[in-house]
Design goal:
CATH architecture of one domain: 3-Layer(aba) Sandwich
CATH topology of one domain: Rossmann fold
CATH superfamily of one domain: HAD superfamily/HAD-like
CATH class of one domain: Alpha Beta
Number of helices: 9
Helix content: 25-40%
Radius of gyration: 20 Å
Oligomer: single chain
Structural class: alpha/beta
Low-confidence stretches: 1-25, 146-160, 167-171
Distance between the termini: 25 Å
Order of helices and strands: HHEEEHHEHEHEEEEEHHH
Mean pLDDT: 85
Largest sheet: 5 strands, parallel
C-alpha cells in the first residue's frame, strides 16, 4: 500500500526585492552588478565548506539502492545548508534555457532526461575503442571548445578526468568515444515524446552531449531542447545540481527530472525519478518501468511532486536523517 504522505511544498524563492532600488532611489546598474558579484562570491565561499565527495554513479546499482540513498541524502542535507538561491544570480545558468510562457499546451508536462548512465553509457577507454570484440552501439566523434579543460576542470577529480579525455584525442584533435545505449532507450524517447515536452538535462559539456543526442534523435523531432553543464549549479566541480527554477513559463509542479544521480535533485527532490545507473546490462528493464510509471501516475497528476513523494519518500527520508 502506498503511504498517504502529504508534505508541504515550500518553494525556494530568490529574494528579487533586495536587488530592486528603494523608492526615490536612482537605478545604478553598476551598483546592482557589484552586489550580484558579491553574492556570487559569498556562494562560492559557502561551497568551499563542502569537503566530501559525491558517491560514484557505480554505487547506484540494483541491490544497493538503500545504501546509496542513505549516504547521498546525508550529502544533500549538507548541500542544502548552502544558500543555493545565490547561485541563481549566475546568468550562465539561463543560457539556452527555453521560456515556455504561452508556448506549452495546457496541462502538458516537461520531462527532463539525464544522459550518462541514464540513457547511455560511454566508454572513455582508448585501449578498447578499436577492439572489434566490443560491440558498441555507436562510436561518436566530437571536438571540444578550445580551453574547455582550463575553464571547467579545477580539482583533483576533474584533473583526472581531464587526463583521460585528453588521451582520447587523435591527430585531428577529435574525440572518439564508444557508447552503449540503454535497453529500449530509442523506443522510450519515441513514446514519451507523444505525451511530454521532452528535453535533455545533462551535466556533461555541450559538444559531447550533442554528439550523443544527435545519434539518439537524428531527426531532431523527439527531444525539443537541451541543457548542459553550464545550466547546472556547480559545487566545487564535484556536485552538479539541476535546479528546475531556471525554466520559465511553466509551474514547477509540472516538471519531471529522470536521473541516475540523486544529487541532481538536491533543490527539488520530489520532482525527481531516480533510476539505477546503466553500464551495459542487456537484461536492464529500467526504462520500461519508468514509462509505465510516467503514463499511469504522472501524466495526469495535478502535482507530480505529491505522487513522487508517495512513491519514493525522498523528503521524508531526508527529514528522518536530520532527526
Amino acid at each position: 500500500m502506498l503511504s498517504e504522505i502529504k508534505l508541504s511544498q515550500e518553494e525556494l524563492t530568490l529574494d528579487i526585492e533586495s536587488f530592486k532600488p528603494q523608492e526615490n532611489e536612482a537605478v545604478n546598474p553598476r551598483k546592482t552588478e557589484q552586489k550580484i558579484k558579491k553574492e556570487l562570491k559569498e556562494f562560492k565561499k559557502q561551497c568551499s565548506s563542502i569537503e566530501f565527495n559525491p558517491l560514484c554513479s557505480r554505487e547506484n546499482y540494483l541491490g544497493n539502492y538503500d545504501n546509496y540513498l542513505k549516504t547521498a541524502l546525508s550529502h544533500i542535507s549538507a548541500l542544502r545548508k548552502i544558500n543555493l538561491d545565490l547561485a541563481l544570480l549566475n546568468n550562465k545558468l539561463y543560457e539556452g534555457v527555453p521560456d515556455f510562457t504561452n508556448k506549452l499546451q495546457k496541462g502538458k508536462k516537461i520531462l527532463l532526461l539525464d544522459l550518462d548512465e541514464t540513457l547511455i553509457h560511454s566508454d572513455f577507454s582508448l585501449e578498447y575503442i578499436n577492439d572489434k570484440n566490443i560491440k558498441y552501439d555507436k562510436v561518436i566523434k566530437f571536438k571540444e571548445r578550445e580551453n574547455e579543460f582550463e575553464e571547467n576542470y579545477e580539482d583533483y577529480y576533474d584533473m583526472r578526468r581531464k587526463k583521460i579525455r585528453q588521451s582520447l584525442f587523435n591527430e585531428e584533435k577529435e574525440y572518439k568515444v564508444g557508447i552503449f545505449v540503454r535497453n529500449g532507450a530509442k523506443t522510450f524517447l519515441t513514446e514519451v515524446s507523444k505525451y511530454f515536452e521532452v528535453g535533455i538535462f545533462t551535466a556533461s559539456v555541450k559538444e559531447y552531449a550533442d554528439a550523443i543526442i544527435d545519434y539518439l534523435d537524428p531527426n531532431k523531432n523527439l527531444i525539443k531542447f537541451r541543457l548542459y553543464r553550464n545550466n547546472c549549479i556547480n559545487i566545487n566541480d564535484k556536485f552538479f545540481i539541476k535546479d528546475l527554477r531556471i525554466i520559465q513559463g511553466v509551474d514547477i509542479k509540472d516538471i519531471i527530472l529522470l536521473d541516475n544521480s540523486i544529487y541532481s535533485f538536491t533543490t527539488q527532490l520530489n520532482n525527481g525519478i531516480l533510476v539505477n545507473s546503466f553500464f551495459n546490462d542487456k537484461n536492464d528493464i529500467e526504462l520500461s518501468n519508468v514509462y509505465e510509471y510516467l503514463i499511469n501516475y504522472l501524466l495526469k497528476a495535478d502535482d507530480v511532486r505529491t505522487i513522487n513523494e508517495q512513491f519514493f519518500s525522498f523528503e521524508k527520508l531526508l527529514n528522518d536523517l536530520s532527526l
